[in-house]
Amino acid sequence: MKRYKYWDLKTYDKEEIKALAAKLEISPVTAGILWNRGLREENRIRDFLFGKKDTYYDPFLMKDMRLAAERILQAVEGREKIAVYGDYDVDGITASSLLYLYLTGLQANVSTYIPKREGEGYGLNNEALQYLYEEGITLVITVDCGISGVKEVAEAPRGMDIIITDHHRPPELLPAAFAIVNPKQTDCRYPFKGLSGVGVAFKVCQALEKLRNPEAPFWEQYTELVALGTVADIVPLQDENRALVKRGMKAMETTSLTGLRKLLEVCRCYRETITTEKIGFILAPRLNAVGRLEHAQLAVELLITKDEEAAERMANNLNDENAVRQEISRQIFTEAEALLAEQDSIGPAIVLAGHWDSEAQEGWHPGVIGIVASRLVDKYYRPVILISIRGEIAKGSCRSIPPLDLYDAIDACSADLVQFGGHSQAAGLTLESSKIEDFRKHFTDVIRNSLQPEDYQPHLAVDVEWDRHEELTLSFLHELQLLEPFGCENPVPIFMLRNAELHNPRLFGQELTHLRFFADIGSRSCHCIMWQGAPYQFCLCNNAQADIAFKPRINFFNNTESINLDIVAFRMDMELHDYRRNSEFKETVLARLLHSGQQFTVFINQNSKEEAELASCANVKIRYYGEQCEASEKQIIFYELPEENIFQWGKFPVYGNGGTVLYILYNMDDLYMQKKRLQEEYPDRNHLVDAYRLIKRVLQSQAVAKIDQLKYQAEKHQLCLKEHDLRIFRELDFFRIEGDNLMMGSMERKQLDASPTYIGLCAKKDTLLEMYHNSLRIAGARIQSLRKR
Fold first, then answer.
1. Beta pairing partners, 741
2. pLDDT tens digits, residue range 665-684?
C-alpha cells in the first residue's frame, strides 16, 4: 500500500452545491465531487451522468482523416494488399484487431503485423516494411505507433504508401507519410485530444463508414475492443473516451467476438459485472503477457478468430503466459531490490540494469521490466528506469511520478540514446550498453535539477470528508455508480473519516499479506479491507484511532448487498511500527530503514556498545533514553531495551504532532541478552555460595590470601569474583579485608538480606528486569496515548 504524506481534501461552497444538487436530483456529495472535477454547469453534469445527445465528434475534424479514409477505400476497392501494423501492448492489439475486423467486413485483402518486442522493438522498422513489401503489401496502416518513425518512413520501399494513425506525442519533425491521423498534432482541429490508439482506429472506421454511407448514423461496432484498449492504456476517461468505454463495457456483456468471450470465461470474469477494474487488472494483463514474453500477434489472433476450439486454446495459453509473467516479475523485482540495497542511498531517480539471455530465457526480460518499474515507483515514489542488457544494445522501460514529465526528462538525455518515445508518465528507450552509466548520470542530474524535495512526497486527493456520525447508505453508493466508468482523470471517489475507531484487525489471504478490520460509520460497522496491509497490523491495533481514506464499495454476497471500505491510506498523530514480537533481526530492520536515506533519531542506553557504529551513520542522530525529542524529529527508533522508565506521562520522549513515526526494534532477543548480563553483573545467590566456598577453601590452607590471588584462583574454576561479592561478604563479616589481604571473619550464619549492598543491587536488578518486561509488554495503544502533544 502506497503511503501519502499529504492528504489534499477538496472543498466547495455547500450552499451553492445544495442548489445544484436539488436541480439535478442527486445528493450534494455527488454534486460536490463533480464540481471539484470541473463539472459545474447543470447541462454538463447531466451529459456526464446520463450521456450526451451527440455522442461522437465528426471524425473528419481530425487532420488528414479524409485523405487517409479515401486512400484506404481505394485500396479496398482495388483489392490491394493492406497491412495493419500495430503495437504489442493491449492498445495496439485491440486497435489492430478492430481495424482488421472492420476491413474484412468490407471484403478487403488485409492482414495484421505486430512486431516482436524482442528483436524488432516498438514502432516501425525497415526490415518489417521490406518484408511486407515483398509480400505484395502496397498500403500499410499503423495503429498506436508510427508517429516517431521519420527514418523508417523515409527509407520505406517505393510503391508502398504508409498511413500513420497514432495518439502519442508527435515529435517536432513528422514522418513523410501519405497521411498522419493523430489528434495531438498541433494543427489538428479535433476537439478531444485524449483518444487511445484504438480510439483513433475506431474514428478511422467511423470515417470509412461515413464515406460509404453519408446519411447513416455514426458506426459503433466493436466498442468492447475500444473499451479494452482505452482502459488498458490509461488515457483520460473523459468526453468521448467515457462514452466509448461505457458502451464498450455494455457490449462486452453480449459480445459476438468468440476470442474475447473465451478469455472472459477463462479469467472467470463474469460478463454481467464488467468494470474498468476487471479490464485493467484481469483482462489487460493477460493480453499484455503474450506480447511481453512471446508474440502479441497471438493475442490479435485470439480477438479476431471465430473458431471456438482455437479461441479456447489461445485463451488458456494467454492465461498461462500471464502466470509465467508474474513469476518473472517477482524475480526481477527481488533482484532490483538487492541492487538498491548495495547502494549507499536511493537518489533522486532509480536507474538499474540487468542482463537478459534470450536463448536461456534468463535474466531481465525486456517485456517485463516495465511492470517492475511501476512497482518500484509505487514503493519508492521516484522516477524509475529499468534497463535490460542484451549484448551491445540495451532497452529500458521508464515510469514516472506526477510532478515529472518523463518524456521531457529523457529528451534532455537523448544524446545518450539510440531512440525513445512515450508519454509524460511512461516511456521506452534504446541505447548502447556501453552508454548506460553515462545515461544514468545524466538522467539523475536532470531529475535532481527538475524536482524539489517536496515532489518526492506523494499527495492523496480526497474527494469527501465523511462525518462518522452520519449514515453511509447503499442507496447513496448506487447513486455514486452514475460516475462510472472510473479510470484516468475520473478516479473512484476517495472518502476520508477522521478519528475512526478500528476494531478486530485480522490478517487474511493465502500468505496473510492483507489486513481487515471494522470501522464504525453512523450506526453501521463497516468491513474494511487494506490490500497488502500486513505490515500495519500493529499500527492499526484493536481500538486504535486513525484517520482513514477509503473507497466505498457495494459487496454482493449470498444475494445480499453490504458496504465494504477499501482502505487507501491511513494516518495517525504517531504511527507506531512495533517489532517487539517480530522474528526478524533488529539489525536487519535497522539497515533497511537507514537505507531509505531519511533522517532518524535512534534511542539507546548510555554507555551502549552500539553507539560508535550507529553514530557513524550519516542519517542517524543518537539520543539516550531519558532525553527528549524536538518536535521536528519525525522518524524515531527505540533500538535497545530502555534502562529508563520512559513509558509514563511526562517522560515519554516523542512528540506525536502529525507525521511522527516510531519504530520499536528491541525484542525478546534483547531481553535474553539483558538477563544474561544482569546475571553476570549483579549478585546471584548461587554464585555467592560458590564464591564463599572457594574463598573459605583457600583460607583453610593459608591464614591470609591476596585478593588478586583469589580472583586468579576463581578464574581457574570458571568463577568471576566481583568487587561487590567481596563487599557483601565483608558486610556480613564472613571475611575481613585489610588492604589487599583477605582473612577469615565470623563463622556466625547470616542471611544475605543482612547486606545493604546485596539488598540494593537486588532491588536495582529487579527494577531493571521489571522495566525490561514492561517495555516489551506495554500495549501499542497505551504507547500512542503517551505521546507529547
1. 706, 738
2. 999 999 999 998 898 888 88
Rounded-to-integer distance, Cα 520 and Cα 504, Å: 12
Does the predicted TM-score (pTM) go above 0.85?
Answer: no
Task: Specify whether the backbone of 469 is left (phi greater than 0), alpha (psi in -120 to 50) or beta.
Answer: alpha
Helical spans, DSSP H, in 163-238: 197-212, 223-232
- Alpha carbon distance 413, 438 (integer Å): 9
Cell 548510555 -> residue: 606
Residues 6+ apart with CB under 8 A from 372: 329, 332, 333, 336, 386
**Sheet strand arrangement including 600-604:** 574-578, 660-664, 635-638, 600-604, 620-624
- DSSP E strands: which ranges in 400-492? 419-422, 426-432, 459-462, 464-465
β-pair partners for 578: 664
Mean pLDDT, residues 240-253: 95
Please name the residues in contact with 76: beta carbons below 8 A apart, sequence gap of 6 or more: 82, 103, 106, 107, 108
All three cell numbers of 62, joined, read 481530425
Dihedral angle at the C-alpha atoms of 361, 362, 363, 365, nearest 10 degrees? 20
Neighbours of 429 (CB within 10 A): 24
Q: What is the pLDDT of residues 375-385, one digit of tens each?
A: 999 889 999 99
Nearest to 383 by CA among 367, 398, 370: 398
What are 43's three cell numbers?
447541462
- Under 8 Å between Cβ of 786 and 647: yes
Residue 46 sits at φ, ψ, to 5 deg, of -60, -45
Q: Which amino acid is at 486?
A: F
Q: How far apart are CA 264 and CA 312, in angstroms?
A: 10
- C-alpha pair distances (Å), 690 with each of 719, 727, 729, 752, 758: 8, 16, 12, 14, 16
Other beta carbons less than 10 A from residue 770's beta carbon: 11
